[in-house]
Amino acid sequence: MKRQALLAAAVTVADLAGLSLGWWWVIPLAGLVVGAAAPVRRPVPALLAATAVAGAASLVWQGGARTLDAADLAGAMALNARGLGWVVVAVTLVYTLLLALAGAWIGGAARRLGADVRSGRAARLGPGSGSLDTKEDEHV
Fold this sequence. Notes:
- By secondary structure, the chain is mainly α.
- 77% of the residues lie in helices and 0% in strands.
- Helix 1 packs parallel to helix 3, helix 2 runs antiparallel to helix 3 and helix 3 runs antiparallel to helix 5.
């Protein structure tokens, strides 16, 4: 529990620092680091919570008291309806969480691939030995 709280604090600080500079790519990068370093899926809830907090704090910090007004304007231009600023903010936060999940997924895949390469398993899996190969492919 203490490790996840420390992870959440580190991700929040890293995401908030990057987002304050306009570096949106810090979110998937933090997810990638967490996914590559963590051997199990346990840190994913901490990653998502930290990313949500950092994303919301960044929106409020950069927009100030006019965050919902700016989102309402964007919603009016995109959806041709007034009063849907909360939808724009919600979609922005969901997109932020999807970026973090994508980074964590790539980090986990890289970790597993690295383990296969180190163990020599990837070298033994050549053409014709994977599960996607079919009998028709062997006769071509």
